[in-house]
Design goal:
With about 140 residues, the protein is mainly alpha-helical. Helices cover about 70% and strands about 0% of the residues. Helix 3 runs antiparallel to helix 4, helix 3 packs parallel to helix 6 and helix 3 runs antiparallel to helix 7. The longest helix has 25 residues. It is globular and about 45 Å long. The chain starts with 10 loop residues before the first helix and ends with a helix. About 15% of the residues are buried. The mean pLDDT is about 85.
């Protein structure tokens, strides 16, 4: 009698399962908890969307460079593209001059720089940032 191996767990399910406690603690922390509970201000939300714009600008630029990479390409889907929606939200929230009115926080700047580094040279690192960011958001 041949023993059947269990069906493999999809990468997304394994990552979600193994990072669920981190997601839960993040969702319960000050800033995010306030936003999720409706206690954050409009300005708090605008600040979050603005920081996401810088992050997704770097991530989606890196995705374009990685599209032909055999490792990274299987994780890239146009269905995940977020920049147009973030830009529409910022235009609605801040006006047409929104680009002149936002700037990255130092932590966002460092994160974006890291995404750019791995997105230019390391498919596995790009996949880690890409996948956890899209899964987390």
């Amino acid at each position: 009698m041949m023993r059947r191996m269990a069906d493999p767990i999809p990468f997304s399910a394994a990552l979600r399962e193994r990072s669920s406690s981190a997601h839960s603690s993040s969702e319960r922390s000050g800033f995010m908890a306030d936003l999720l509970e409706g206690a954050g201000t409009r300005e708090d939300y605008i600040a979050l969307v603005a920081q996401h714009w810088f992050i997704y600008d770097a991530l989606e630029s890196a995705a374009e460079r990685m599209r032909r990479d055999p490792v990274a390409s299987v994780f890239i889907s146009d269905k995940l593209t977020r920049l147009p929606a973030l830009e529409a939200d910022l235009a609605f929230l801040l006006g047409d001059d929104w680009r002149d009115r936002i700037s990255p926080l130092p932590t966002t700047r460092a994160y974006v720089e890291r995404i750019r580094q791995v997105g230019a040279t390391w498919p596995g690192g790009f996949v880690a940032h890409h996948y956890t960011r899209y899964l987390g958001d």
